[in-house]
TrEMBL record:
The keyword ATP-binding does not apply. This is Flavodoxin-like domain-containing protein. Residues 23-56 are annotated as: Disordered. PANTHER family: EXPORTED PROTEIN-RELATED (PTHR39201), FLAVODOXIN-LIKE DOMAIN-CONTAINING PROTEIN (PTHR39201:SF1). Residues 60-210 form the Flavodoxin-like domain. Residues 37-53 have a biased composition (Acidic residues). Keywords: Signal. It comes from Candidatus Cryptobacteroides merdavium. It comes from the Bacteria.
Length: 215
């Protein structure tokens, strides 16, 4: 009986914490999970330069992303590699806790209070960009609240927005739709959401070709 109760409690914990995936996959502190792929430090140089052989043409592209454990960062960097876009990391002024459970608590508090966490830096030459990719992990069934801060900080009129996200098992479509909802003045191309194991050159290339970003 004790063993049955133990496994039942573990199952409930997995379901509860799975709703908040600080960067696509669950993190330390939850049964059966991965550790962060690429722990991030504020100011750490991580952004690849523009590829002069990129097929991006004359369109000026920005890939803006928020990442906690490294998975969304990895997807963003692959988009940049294939398009030659500029990369902008959305960093909070006050970093999120590195502990998984603490981070989920902060994320839920922000969601429940409709918070707008301050962003540490601004996009340079915003008006130069025609197309803006916006990416994030799924947190509590939707985008982290810092994505609201980002989308409310810039004028999206005349721009094309392409949403992307990383997730553990669910709420992919809801998160992509939320990014579209947050940028009503922009045109939109079909977004993409990937789990960690599906972030690779082929999958991202197929998506970028489907939406005519690359040939």
């Amino acid at each position: 009986m004790r063993k049955c109760m133990f496994y039942l409690m573990m199952a409930v914990a997995v379901i509860a914490f799975g709703a908040c995936s600080p960067d696509e996959s669950n993190e330390p502190g939850t049964p059966g999970i991965e550790t962060p792929e690429n722990p991030e430090e504020p100011g750490e140089p991580e952004e690849p330069g523009e590829d002069p052989d990129s097929p991006s043409g004359e369109t000026k592209i920005l890939v803006a992303y928020f990442s906690w454990g490294g998975t969304t960062q990895r997807m963003a960097q692959e988009i940049v590699r294939q398009t030659g876009a500029d990369l902008f990391r959305i960093e909070p002024e006050v970093p999120y806790p590195t502990d998984y459970t603490e981070c989920t608590e902060v994320a839920l508090e922000e969601k429940n209070s409709n918070a707008r966490p301050a962003i540490a830096k601004e996009v340079e030459n915003w008006d130069d960009y025609d197309t803006v990719f916006i990416g994030c992990p799924v947190w509590w069934w939707t985008t982290p609240m810092i994505i609201c801060t980002f989308t409310e900080s810039y004028d999206f009129k005349g721009k094309t927005v392409v949403p992307f996200c990383t997730y553990a098992s669910t709420y992919r479509d809801e998160t992509l739709a939320r990014i579209v909802e947050l940028t009503p003045d922009a045109e939109h191309l079909a977004g993409e959401g990937l789990t960690s194991g599906r972030i690779n050159e082929q999958n991202i290339s197929s998506w970028l070709k489907e939406i005519s970003i690359i040939k």
